[in-house]
Specification:
The chain is of the alpha+beta class and 406 residues long. The chain has twelve helices and 17 strands. It is globular. It starts with a helix and ends with a helix. The mean pLDDT is 97. Bound molecules: glyoxylic acid and manganese (II) ion (2 copies).
């Protein structure tokens, strides 16, 4: 087995779910153990380590001109409940492998090369994705330290402090110009590369994600005694909204419009009690930010109509509402040049999933390298990328980093 495949296997074992599933929630015991293990690997590769107050971790291979802005790569190792072993991890361990492979050739970078482990790319714990890169890029104000709460009700400050990451969140902020460039290696999480038998995707844009929390207050009551015309069932209002949202996404005329109602909490959640309060959370995305916003406006109007239709009260808030990112032509061209020089077929593509690159693109030129994954499966235990696909991605990443760092 290749070193990186062995390391992916080892990392997958830091999990709160039995294999092949992986659950590794940020700052859980397994996450902290995995971070410690990764730090040992990076130390062994001679990389200098820095951690910021939210746990973003920077592994630096010092260049011959260390004053120059560094070239960065990296991704995340947190994994949503019951997911797979490749999402994010290929970009972290692949970044390390790329650095080690360059070291093995005797290459000396002029700019430093920095591998970044981003904290909490997944929204599992704090309800908000890309926590680390949002803070780095200043998109999330540092006041979130006190206001953002985890699933157990503790604030970000309490959770990170307990995990050993102390200090002022201001220190997480990176200024534009801090990095020369950023390139993230990731599995595609979609089926296109595999279907087309193209080994490398070069990301030219990242879709605009938004998510909303919608709270519906109806009237509870006895499931036997309250007659149907008298009801104000909060769950039925929620169900209609979820279906309406599906219809909005299907009616834009573009396959790039997607919407998902992935959370539905029902109160009091009793089989013989009419739901009196329901909270749903909807994820709405599009490669075109304006078209995404039109779906949001339609959903907001549907909420107003639903209040009148079912006699319920609806409040809504945005969890996030992010703009799409355009990737940098210089980085895209560099990756394409590496592929061409090696006779590797490649497609330019958009990323429909979000990534830390969405926020890194706000502070430096950025792009992503995608590799195929089995049937496009992701966020599920049978997520799979072949050793060949991973090795190919690492090779292209390594040469890209080398060119950018020259
Ligand atoms: C990232 O995991 C996403 O949901 O796009
Ligand atoms: Mn993910
Ligand atoms: Mn990911």
């Amino acid at each position: 087995m290749n070193r990186i495949d062995k390391e992916l296997e080892t990392l997958a074992a830091f999990s709160d779910a039995p294999a092949p599933a992986v659950t590794r929630v940020v700052f859980s015991e397994q996450d902290l153990k995995a971070r410690a293990w990764l730090k040992r690997l990076c130390e062994a590769a001679g990389l200098a380590i820095r951690e910021d107050a939210v746990g973003n971790t920077f592994f630096r291979w010092q260049g011959t001109d260390p004053a120059l802005p560094a070239v960065a790569t990296g991704s995340h190792i947190d994994a949503i409940p019951h997911s797979g072993r490749y999402d994010g991890t290929v970009g972290v361990l692949g970044g390390l492998e790329a650095i080690r492979s360059l070291q093995a050739t005797g290459f000396q970078p002029r700019r430093s090369i920095e591998l970044i482990l981003f904290t909490s790319e997944e929204p599992t714990r704090f309800g908000l994705g890309c926590l680390g890169s949002r803070l780095m890029s200043g998109v999330l104000p540092t006041s979130a330290d006190a206001t953002l709460k985890g699933s157990d009700g503790a604030t970000l400050n309490e959770v990170r402090t307990k995990a050993g990451f102390k200090g002022n969140l201001e220190s997480t902020l990176l200024k534009p110009g801090h990095y020369d460039s950023f390139v993230e290696l990731h599995i595609e999480q979609g089926p296109l590369l595999e279907a087309r038998r193209v080994p490398i995707g070069i990301v030219i844009a990242i879709a605009a994600p938004a998510s909303m929390r919608i709270t519906i207050e109806g009237q509870g009551g006895h499931a036997g005694a309250v007659l149907m015309p008298e009801r104000h069932d909060a769950f039925l209002a929620a169900a209609e909204l979820a279906l309406a949202l599906e219809a909005f996404a299907k009616s834009t005329g573009s396959v790039d419009s997607v919407a998902t109602t992935g959370v539905c909490d029902i109160h009091p959640r009793a089989i013989n009690s009419i739901p009196s309060r329901v909270v749903i959370e909807a994820d709405i995305r599009d490669t075109d930010g304006d078209r995404r916003d039109r779906m949001i406006v339609s959903l907001e109007q549907a909420c107003v109509n639903m209040e009148a239709k079912r006699g319920v009260r609806i409040t809504r808030e945005f969890i996030n509402r992010d703009a799409p990112a355009q990737c940098d032509p210089r980085i895209v061209g560099t990756v394409a040049g590496v592929c061409d020089a090696n006779g590797i077929a490649h497609d330019r593509m958009v990323s429909r999933a979000y990534h830390d690159s969405l926020f890194m693109a706000k502070i430096c030129p950025a792009s992503m390298i995608f590799i195929p994954c089995y049937k496009g499966f992701s966020h599920r235990p049978d997520e799979y990328a072949s050793p060949e696909a991973i090795a190919g991605g690492v090779k292209v990443l390594a040469e890209t980093l080398a060119r950018l760092a020259c």
